[in-house]
Design goal:
- The chain is α+β, with helices and mostly antiparallel strands.
- It has eight helices and 22 strands.
- The protein has three domains: 81 residues, Carboxypeptidase-like, regulatory domain (Immunoglobulin-like, Sandwich), CATH 2.60.40.1120; 96 residues; 124 residues, no CATH class.
- β15 and β16 form a beta hairpin.
- InterPro entries: CarboxyPept-like_regulatory.
Length: 374
């Protein structure tokens, strides 16, 4: 299976501003009730979570929930099978101590989807294999991931020629044994264009740590988490925010793409040989916000870790090289945060090694490698 050449990572992170690299902040209580919009009756056991973090809880039998969270700005997901999901922007600066009441509207279409009996032919399983490869990834971590219920997936390769589209009738639960998490992933959209290898996916993940691990297994998991973090987009954005890309092992070079006169519609890469400082990429506005701002492309080499055998392909000869990626801003400027997230999920286009690492290599935005050190 060919590796995709480009992926626009619309993993909807939202505004996860923790105001620093560690979690040593005051814990605040976010509480409320989930109820039916039409009847006003409480909905028991609804899922409430802060997207792309480890902060999540289920409402009790009376629809009530309480969640301790650090200071910051978040996107909250409220979800229950049979109801339309709700996305709520939450700032702890405006947190209501009396709590919130969230009203969900019934979704007849979703209930119908769950009840449909799907005859799964060989094409369905081929599409499932493609979805696993391009969504979970083909890295060591991605290959070990497992969907806990594949029956909720809707795999569509008929409505648009050459395109595989995937949705899910409920929260997609993914077991990631290598990183010690279960992901509860609210899949909004997945699109794979076979001809050009273009992959686009969107969703809201919650990371649920495995609390059953032995000490020995926990240490192994922490090592694997740190390995997944090193060289990732999250690591890169954090280092750019801090101005420590060189110390963190990243080498940045300017990359220009110019039209290829011999191949109309194609381009030629022109790479500037001399590196430049990440400080040239960021500015601070009048409000003190850190803004990422550059044109063209940035060629990124991570020198502290070699590319994996899975990325190169086991049949490919030769020595493994450094991890090489390309990033491009889709906006004139983009606000970035200390935890490695950014304000607009459409804001960054990534190619190369970082793009190859998918959901199987994701870590929550509250992950801090330093907190795992003895």
């Amino acid at each position: 299976m060919n590796k995709p050449i480009t992926i626009l990572r619309k993993i909807v992170l939202g505004l996860f501003l923790f105001l620093g690299g560690n979690m040593a902040f005051a814990q605040l209580v976010f509480q409320g009730t989930v109820a039916d919009f039409d009847t006003g009756e409480e909905i028991p056991y609804a899922t409430v979570f802060i997207t792309n973090t480890t902060f999540g809880v289920s409402a009790d039998e009376n629809g009530k929930f309480s969640l301790s969270i650090p200071e910051g700005n978040y996107e909250v997901i409220i979800r229950m099978l049979g109801y339309n999901g709700l996305v709520f922007s939450l700032s702890t600066e405006e947190l209501k101590p009396q709590g919130y009441r969230f009203l969900l509207t019934p979704s007849e279409e979703e209930l119908d989807l769950v009840e449909v009996k799907v005859n799964r032919d060989p094409a369905w399983y081929r599409n499932l294999a493609s979805f696993k490869a391009y969504f979970l990834g083909t890295s060591e971590n991605g290959l070990q991931c497992k969907f806990l219920d594949e029956t909720i997936l809707r795999l569509d390769d008929q409505s648009e020629t050459g395109v595989l589209k995937v949705t899910a009738a409920d929260i997609l639960r993914i077991e990631n044994p290598n990183l010690g998490y279960r992901l509860d992933y609210l899949l909004e959209e997945f699109r794979y264009q076979r001809q050009d290898g273009y992959v686009f996916y969107a969703g809201y993940p919650l990371f649920v740590p495995d609390s059953t691990l032995s000490r020995r297994k926990q240490r192994k998991v922490e090592q694997q988490r740190e390995k997944a973090y090193r060289g990732s987009l999250q690591h890169l954005i954090r280092s750019i925010y801090e101005g420590t890309t060189e110390e963190q092992g990243f080498v940045l070079r300017r990359l220009y793409r110019v039209p290829d006169p011999s191949n109309p519609g194609k381009f030629v890469n022109q790479l500037v040989s001399s590196p430049f400082s990440a400080k040239e990429l960021i500015t601070k506005n009048a409000e003190g916000k850190v803004m990422l701002r550059f044109s063209d492309y940035v060629h990124v080499t991570y020198t502290e870790e070699l590319e994996s055998v899975e990325f190169r392909g086991r049949a490919s000869p030769g020595r493994l090289g450094n991890q090489v990626s390309t990033i491009h801003l889709e906006l004139e400027e983009l606000e970035i945060y200390a935890n490695g997230s950014y304000a607009d999920p459409f804001g960054i286009l990534v190619e190369g090694y970082i793009a190859w690492e998918r959901v199987g290599d994701l870590l929550p935005m509250d992950y801090n490698p330093e907190s795992t050190k003895p």
